[in-house]
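Dear colleague,

As promised, here are the two records you asked about, laid out in our usual form so they can be pasted straight into your sheet.

NAME FIELD: protein one
SEQUENCE, THEN STRUCTURE:
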Amino acid sequence: MALTGVQIYKFLPKTNCKECDFPTCLAFAMKLAAGGVELAACPYVSDEGKAALAAASKPPIRLVTIGAGEKKIEVGNETVLFRHEKTFVHPTGLVVRIKDTASADDVAKTVAEVSGYSVDRVGMTFGLDGFAIQNDSGDAAAFAKCVETVSSKSDLPLILMATDPAAMSAALGKVGDAKPLIYAATKDNIDQMVELAKKCGCALAVRSSDGLNELAELTEKAIAAGVEDLIIDSGVRDFAGTLTTLTQIRRLALAKRFEPLGYPVITFPGEGASSLDEEAVLAAQHIAKYGSIVVIDNFTPALALALITMRLNIYTDPQKPIQMKPGLYQIGEPKAESPLCVTTNFSLTYFSIAGELEGAGWASWLLVCDTERLSVLTAWSAGKFDAEKIAKTVKGENAAEKVSHRNVIIPGGVAVLRGELEEELPDWKIMVGPREAMAVGGYLKENWKN
């Protein structure tokens, strides 16, 4: 049973040191009881206290790993209902389903397309996360062969989908060491599936066909048998049903600390959709509310790009915007006479101006100042993007050695800095660029003479 804040407080050091970012130990205890913080945030809790508070400090949604190595999928360990409350931690795993009834050529083609797909967003490279192989044929040998084919052509994590324990056992004999997810234990086969999960040390998916009560009973049975790494599937597939059910699961796990449902959730939007467009919309809904692993049936680069971009937006920490490393960047292949522009290290700001420069065909030098992830106007308002900072970056990055001119272009939104910057950089001509990134091409065409 979960402890109250007052009960937790008895095990804390009571020093009110504030190193946990809370004003008092009692305030920290109350937040810990609500699941809004982890015990590790207190640097002085004793070993005795850690042992006594183990249950209270346990994440309300268990962290589960699928696969092994660098490309493993980690899901769960979430502590909030809404991203703005703190942050979402482990991004949704996006997985493509392959059926063992597909031809060998089709399987190889899908694996190659999915494994080879990548997209660069805000300076990072993303792709899809794995394959779900379904025993659609009902034949154990065909299933094992398909699993072996996929694993030989890709190192992405696998989800093995079969309700027949014999078929699952045959497939695990091929890839058990890769720690795939076993999908799925039901009321009819849970004993056998639990034994397979224990034997191979793999995570186990539990699927209900009769609501959350049955799902909770199945997870409790698996836990009692010694399998704790679980993924849950409510069995609901339609738009309204999945939104309601997944929200209910999340609330029960977080607000009520209902441990039988405190596990990551797997969804199958293709089973609730009648077209590719509907699958895309439902998959997006599952990423937002609250799918931990989303298995899609149709892979296209357009669908993958949309889902990856949405996932990135949702799983970016709102308290820590994505940032670029400060420095001097080359846009295209700039020469000594190319323009030198200045911006902040907020990634969206950087990629907005970089994209416009590249799109307009202006090879340029782009100087990125450290503004602690803040955009131009926000950083200027906070005193983190001023003449001194710009001048220091110009000198620190040796911009004068890269260009043959002494012209530097600052964003139009901070034109007020021009006078101060002229004092900081007396040998440079300070040019005021446009307020909006989209206007930079026209601005350079009209004003850049070198």
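NAME FIELD: protein two
SEQUENCE, THEN STRUCTURE:
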Amino acid sequence: MSFFEALWLEARAANTLWLLAMCALALLTRRAVPHPHRLRVLSFWVVGHLVALGVDAALRAREHSAGNEFRTVAWVFGAVAFVGASMSVLFHGLLPRARVSLPRIVEDVLVGLLSVVAAVTVASRAGANLSGIIATSAVITAVLGFSLQDVIGNVASGLALQLDTSIDVDDWIKVNDVSGRVVEVSWRYTAIETRNWETILVPNLQLLRSPVTVLGRRVGQPRLWRRWVHFHVDWHHQPSEVIEAVQSAVRGAELPRVANDPPPNCVLLDMADTYGRYAVRYWLTDLAADDLTDSDVRTRIYFALQRADIKLAVPSRSVTVAQEAAEVPQVKTARQTERRKAALKAVGFFNTLEESEFDELACSLRYAPFTAGEVLTRQGAEAHWLYLVEEGTAAVQIREGDTVREVAKLVAPTVFGEMSLLTGARRAATVTAVTDVECFRLDSSAFQRVVARRPELAAHFAEVLSMRSAGLQSAREGLDAEAAQRRQEVVEKDLFQRIRTFLKIE
């Protein structure tokens, strides 16, 4: 008998053609054998089967008696390879098409069990005596089971975690001091990626024995995680004033990664001897950006307190014993007044005011800084302040239906909001800080008192306001320069009359 005749006979007896067909189907099936490790394992069994089959055929062609052992080896390798290829087709070809998803460990366990059953069955039919092996394996199993109980416990724990789906891949969890995102649940461990770009391998047995917090999970709700940002304010300010200033600023900020529902809120947590302990509670939508979002919220808190003239509490250990000289507060106040007067004089809108009027308005200015991204005024809102921008840049935006257009940029030094204070109209546009903005707010009553005492100021303000108002309307309607000039003249006359009527100027 020639070698090729013997090889053909042995291949038919071992169902090699069926094995190769199943392997080809596994490789052609979409997503089959998605991991290189599984491909290498399958290739090992297939190559082992073919090599053993070739050796068996060569020995039988020479009528050598050792061919039976190699036939058994070929059949065992072929059976294990067929099981692996069949499971690949099932788990990565048929089940995904039926929209059925099973944990990876289920496939591993099923492949392992079926491979053992197939190997034992094929070896028995080939005439191998397994009784001695089974008797010996019972002792070996007892020894291994005692020595490898932690490994077995981790494997069983990994199987339990994947089957009950208590922890899934992409979940954010906290176990003991480890917090991060689950990226893999394997046989032995669960891999967790932390926010510090670390991957921590936690034994599965430890996860079952320790309390595990799944962050941001609530049945029937999107993944949100409530965060706390703490700050202290002394008792010179009423709690209701602090809560209102901070809460309104954070809710109106529209910060990225901060949920609008539930809305952020500010609460008084505790009362110390000299200050109150406050906290802003918000719901984080991107659990990977906790510190970055906390920083954004703290920035909003700081600027909101600055605008409300509320000082953060100073720790008692930082208070000096030396008494401040009596003239120091006066010098400080004088410097602040000069800074405010300089800001008023830097804006052409106020260039017709007298020195006494500058002094009066400077005393009425209130420091109101904004950080980049904050809204200074909102379109359609009722006006209570005139804003004097000392440093920074802001964008003027108009909303028309669902469309928001930027129509102008405000670059310091400049002023805005005067239209509403002089005519009583609501805000015509939304102004948002592009950079950090240093500005002052002027109370409506102080500004209107100055204009009411000097009626001639109404004409000057009407001219300045008409230029800005006509500019906004021209941008909205797309008018050319000549049409915009005619529009400005009409607007100026209308504004002058509206100012006189609103301020009751004769």
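A couple of things worth noting about protein two: Confidence is low (pLDDT under 50) at residues 142-148. The first strand starts at residue 172 and ends at 175.

Best,
R.
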